[in-house]
Each structure stands twice: as C-alpha cells, then as structure tokens.
Amino acid sequence: MRPGRRVSIAAACLLAGVLAGCATPPPPSHPEARAEFYQTNDPLEPTNRVLYKVNNGLDEAVLRPAAVAYKDAVPSPVRTGVHNVLGNLTTPVTLANNMLEGKSRRAGNTFMRFVINTTLGGLGLVDVASKLGYPPNSADFGETMAIWGVPEGPYLFLPLLGPSDPRDALGTGVDMTGDPFGWVGQGTAVTVLRWSRFGLTALDERSRVLGEISGIKRTALDPYATFRSLYRQHRKAQIEKIRADHRHTIPAWFPAPTTTH
Amino acid sequence: MHARRMFLSSAAALLTGLAGLARPTAARANTSTAEATRFINATGQALVGVINGPGSSQAKSAALARIVDSHVDVDGIAKFCLGRFWRLATQAERQQYEELFHRVLLLNVTAKIGEYHGVSFTVGRAVARDEGVMVATTVNRPGQAPAEVDWLVKPVGGDPKIIDVVAEGTSLRVTQRSDYASFMTHHNDSVSALITALRSQVARAG
C-alpha cells in the first residue's frame, strides 16, 4: 500500500470518527486478514453500514414500493419514453465529460444523439439516434477524474445516493452543478419541473433494477459487502471501457495524419 | 532422507515435464481462443435450448444442473470464493462447504429460468488472459437492454471449463468471495458459521 493511501484513510477516519467510528485493522500477527482489510479499503465501514441500513429502510418503505407501482401502473412504452427523455436531458453533461476525457468519437456520438433525439425524436421521447448508429455511452465527472489519474479513495456509502467513493461523490456534485438545465429559468414551474425530473429519475432507475436488487438481497450473506464489491467492479469496468476506447472522429477539415514508416 | 526426497521430487518434476513434451495437448496451460469460443458457443446453445425449450420447470432445472456440472469448474470456483479461509478450514469443513456451494450455485442458476425466457446470445471476441481465455458474449432478453457477459474458460482435467462469469464488468466469483469474506470476518473468521449460513440458505429454498 502506498503511504499516501494510508494517510487518506487516516484522514477519512478522523472525519468519520465524529459520526460512528472507524473499522480497526487486524493486528500485524494476522498478515492475511490485514492485507484483506487494506484491500477492501473501507475504513469507514461502521459508519457506512449505518447509512446503508437507513437507506435500505427508506428504499423498502418508499422507493421500492413506488417503483413497483410505477412499473405496474405505467405501460412499458410510456416508461421507455420517460427513460429516453430523462436520458436526453443528461446528454449535455455527458458531452462535456466525453470532451474532458478526450474521447472525440464518444463526444461526437453524444452530440449527434442530442441533436437527433431532441428534434426527430420529439424532445428525446424516441431514441432515433441509436437506430442511426449513434449509441449511448456513459460519462460522468467521476469517470473523467479517473481518466485523469485521480485515485478512487476509500469506499463511501452516501445517504440517498448509495455506494460511492470520494472521487465519485465529488464527480456527482460537479455533474449536478454543471448541468445546464439546472441554470436556466426560475419560478414555481421550473422548480416543479426540476423536482419532477429528480423524482422520475429515481423511479425510472429503481424500476429497472427491481429483480436484480431483490435477487442480490436474497442470495447474499452480507448484502452490504456484495453491493460494495459490485459497485467497485462496475465502476472499474466502465472506466476501463472509456480508457480502451481509442476511436477518434477526425473533422473533415483536419489534415489527415500521415503514416511514415 | 531429506536429500533423497529432494531427488525424488525433482525426478518426478522431470518426468512430468517429459510427459508434457510427449503429450503437448494434455499439459498445455491454456485453451486456444478458437477452442474456447467453440466451447462457449456450444455451452450457450445448450443453456438457451433448455431455458427456451419445452418441459416443466423441474425438468429444466435438472437439465441445467447437468450442463453446470459438466461445463463449470464448480469445485475450483468454490475454492476461489473461500479465499484465505480455505487454508483455515478443516478437511471436513472443506467437503461440507464444497457440497453446499454446489447446491447454492445450482439454486441461484435455476431461480433465474423464468427471468431468462426468450433469451438469445451472440459470441464476440476471445482474448487470452493469464488465467484462461475470456470469451465475450452479448446476451439479449426481450424488453431488456443487451448485456455484455464474458466467460473465463480454462482447461480443468483436460477439458475446457468455465471458471468465472463476468456480467457488465462484475465477476461472479470475485463478488461471491467478497460476500463470504465479509461474512466470515464479522463471524470471528469462522468457516463453520459460513457453512451454517449456506445450509439455512439451501433449506429456505426448499
């Protein structure tokens, strides 16, 4: 383990000490258990577990029943339309991150998606762009920072937002404040629209993973640890996918690269 | 005595090495990418055939269990999932654990039959890795976004076997190992606590 990481863990512990305390590493007489502890990199585990419990309670009481009702009451084509509109609203943030990551083909796809789906797709209701060869891609500021070389830091479980880490928590904040739809307009109507978007996004996302989440809770012996592992692996895979994407879109006016051997 | 044992073991190593030269296919550390692709294609066809085919869910479960037993290195995955606790476990605990792991795995696979009705798949690239060959597939389910599922294939006992499944970047065995490790860490590093928990999981599923 790098010394920097140990320092950041210590700093995080100091922060969480106020809340519920830290996990204590196993003694040096148990080197394997100790290695596992540092590899798990969840020094705030006691605090995180409390927050997981609270979130899980809220989910069982409010979000899951709401998502089930949403899925039962609203026909599938309408839900797809809602999902598409919400997805289209996130494209400006995705585009900014595509560019910050230096991934021109992804940025081009995102740009074309916004133009095509907002116009031909009726304000994003129908995903015409995918059929025309512009597939969606994931890009957020947490991923962008990862591409820039910012380490993920220890695991965090955030109230309402769920699994995260300092890099993704900061990324989420930057994406929210950077969202141009958050800048425009004011007044009651805009506030209502903004909260509707927030509520619908929660319903849409939760209703799409109903089976998966209850399956994990049913089969895992320690759901908290399972969600932690899944989150980390999934983020890592997304970041690797972006990193490995070397396709570039070269503008027509740009001199073609000459290959000399 | 010590020197003799050393001589015997080096002679054994030499002999195995020679045997490897004589039978290059059997001693090969890895499956070829083409072989792994063929294997995953055939296994996938068999799975899809059962899931979408006729028959009661009981008959389907039995057929899936047969495919899992012959195509998946269940014991190897079980050992991997126990991680550092494998060495802490007694011989009896290892045996009980392997048996329960097998049953839980089958329960988890068969529980998904209904969800996967109408499934189809396409096989993509196969890439050689340190541990085996990773074969990429895209799994399509009606009304669901296509999912990227990678299969890690390695020869076990001469035949190619699946040693891991990676769905959308998340590895089945790595996730399972984290689950078990965390459970045991919170139960005084006790393998028998894990065995009890797995037993009640099997009992709950009926």
Write the layout of secondary structure elements.
The complex is a heterodimer of chains A (261) and B (206).
Chain A: H1 3-17, H2 31-40, H3 45-73, H4 76-89, H5 91-100, H6 104-119, H7 128-131, H8 141-148, E1 156-158, E2 162-164, H9 166-178, H10 188-207, H11 210-219, H12 223-243
Antiparallel strand pairs in A: 1-2
Chain B: H1 2-22, H2 24-27, H3 33-52, H4 57-71, H5 74-82, H6 85-88, H7 91-110, E1 120-128, E2 133-140, E3 147-156, E4 159-167, E5 170-171, H8 172-185, H9 191-205
Antiparallel strand pairs in B: 1-2, 2-3, 3-4, 4-5
Helix pairs in contact in B: 3-4, 5-7, 5-8, 7-9
Tell me, briefly, the overall form of chain A: globular
Estimate nothing, just give the exact number of structural domains of chain A.
1
**Shape of chain B from CA axes?**
globular
Helix content range of the residues of chain A, please? 55-70%
Q: What fold name goes in the CATH topology slot of chain B? A: Nuclear Transport Factor 2, Chain: A
